[in-house]
Amino acid sequence: MTRHFLRDDDLSPAEQAEVLDLALALKADRFSAKPLAGPQTVAVVFDKTSTRTRVSFATGIADLGGVPLIIGGGESQLGAKESIADTARVLERMVAAVVWRTFAQAGLEEMAEGTTVPVVNALSDDFHPCQLLADLLTIREHKGALAGLALAYVGDGANNMAHSYLLAGATAGLHVRVGAPEGYLPDPAIVRRASEIAAGTGGSVTVTTDPAAAAAGADVVTTDTWVSMGQEDEKAVRQAVFADYIVDAALMARAADDAIFLHCLPAYRGYEVAAEVIDGPKSVIWDEAENRLHAQKALLVWLLERSAA
Ligand code: CP
Ligand code: NVA
Question: From ligand 1's centre to the CA of 123, what distance in Å?
Fold first, then answer.
């Protein structure tokens, strides 16, 4: 059966741990796995801009012996002239997998339903699950384990990163706390799903409008831009709404003494995070960015193996 990765809870807790184990192994021996030798092609399609996702998938697919085919927004017939379903059927005849950064989660689901090759969400309006694999890998490297740690996400609680932290964090057994203002709280359906998962992993989910309460004693503090791709028209309103949710030294002081700071990047210093934090000693953002490569390679290897079984 073809396995896709459209949202964080497409991997069970055991499967998520397998992918992270594999990522650590591939990081230690970067060119050992060549499942795409042939070489096979992987299509990587972008409807939104990207630096990390584009470079990490292109590099990772090459590391695995394959050829990355990067297709930018407006460069293919997809969307404007051809349906997702027809595109899905053409791609499966030639490529080993489809990686897609787009707006609507429903589009990814339609692509996955219409094709026999794995489809990977490289960020949608609702989720950024590849980023979470890299984040969990980074936390594991710095903290030794995941289950039982407290992670505070402060800022826009309704965006793709917040939703992915809830689902992937609960899957990993983390105590996930989201601190966000009224009107920008996570989707209740995602909170319910994350709580269900947490009940089975020993984790927990807390949503609060108080950033200090979210950060109290946390092992990991993280945030994301206040203005996600596609929300540029709301910039002024958002900067006002989120002003009290900046991760600065005062907020970090509420976290555990050995807390680490994560940010998926790109970052806007002085808005969601103060320069003293993101450029300070607790920040592990460059490890996090590098781990996109290792985590996504592991994901591709795992999806291809499982889909062939
Ligand atoms: N974090 C992340 O996905 O970065 P890019 O938008 O540069 O790919
Ligand atoms: N929430 C951000 C993440 C960027 C990697 C966005 O969607 O723009």
Answer: 8
Kindly give the interhelix angle for 129-143 and 13-28, rounded to the nearest 10 degrees: 70
Quick: pLDDT tens for 194-246.
999 999 999 999 999 999 999 999 999 999 999 999 999 999 999 999 999 99
- C-alpha span between 220 and 54 (Å, rounded): 26
Q: Whose C-alpha lies nearest to ligand 2, atom 8? A: 228
Residues in CB range of 67: below 8 A, 6 or more apart? 36, 39, 40, 41, 42, 61
Total residue length of the chain: 309
Question: What does the alpha-carbon distance between residue 172 and residue 149 come to, in Å, rounded to a whole number?
Answer: 10
Residue with tokens 């969400």: 121
Q: What is the ipTM of this complex?
A: 0.99
The mean pLDDT of 73-94, rounded to a whole number, is: 95
Write phi, then psi, for 39 (nearest 5 degrees): -85, 150
CB environment 256-285: b (16+ within 10 A), e (fewer): beebbbbbbbebeeebbbbeebbeeebbbb
Helix (H) or strand (E) holding 197: helix 188-201
Q: Which residues contact 159 (CB under 8 A, 6 or more apart)?
A: 224, 228
C-alpha 265 – ligand 1 centre gap (Å): 6
Residues 6+ apart with CB under 8 A from 246: 270, 271, 272, 273, 274
Residue 27 to residue 184: CA distance in whole angstroms: 36
Decide: 159 in ligand 2 pocket, CB within 6 A.
yes
Strand partners, 108: none
